[in-house]
Amino acid sequence: MDLSRRSQLTQLRCSYFAVPVIYILCVLWLPAAALWLVLLAWVGVNWYRISSPVLKQGYWVILQSFGLHLALNLTAFASALGASIFNRGGLFSGGGGDDFINLLILGFLTIVLLITAMILPLIKLVKGYQVLMNSYKDCTEDGSVDSSAKSSADIKDNNSEAV
User: Fold this and answer.
1) Cβ(79)–Cβ(109) under 8 Å?
2) DSSP assignment of 50-82, as one string?
3) Which residue, 11, 84, 105, 119, is most buried by CB atoms nearer than 10 A?
4) Residue 107 phi/psi, 5° resolution?
5) Whether residue 23 has pLDDT greater than 60
């Protein structure tokens, strides 16, 4: 079954809209993270199958956005593990003051990384979607002209020649 270019764009747009839905579902219910595997498989298959460079770039932005999200979350996890090393003795023990400062710094870094992991990939996704729509619009305006627009342009040319 050969899909037209329009339906390929529709599939890509649905993929772009599925990403924020999965983000929200993962925050509300952690087992929904399995949907990332389904989306990545879908994006990977479509990226491999499509020959249009504009649409291929659109799928690539989705993959980059997920990679950024995953990298920031893994960094936040590493920061939380580092903070757990300093969680001993309490504030008033022998070396507790230094340990407490390190615990606060790494805990704050974990929170900042988790917030950034939610916001930055979505910003990248929105910018990529805007570039995709602008590129697709330019591609359709330059590459193909509808028959109605072409016929109306011919009629206008004929009317101007007749006068």
Assistant:
1) yes
2) ---HHHHHHHHHHHHHHHHHHHHHHHHHHHHHH
3) 11
4) -65, -40
5) yes
Q: How many CB atoms lie within 10 A of CB 68?
A: 18
**For 77, how many CA atoms within 13 A lie in the half-sphere containing its CB?**
6
Closest CA to 46 of 8, 97, 2: 8
pLDDT exceeding 90 applies to what percent of the chain? 38
Phi, psi of 145, deg, nearest 5: -120, 135
Closest C-alpha to 125, from 73, 79, 64: 64
Which band of pLDDT confidence, cut at 50, 70 and 90, is reported for residue 142?
low
* Predicted pLDDT at 109: 95
Q: Mean pLDDT for the chain?
A: 80
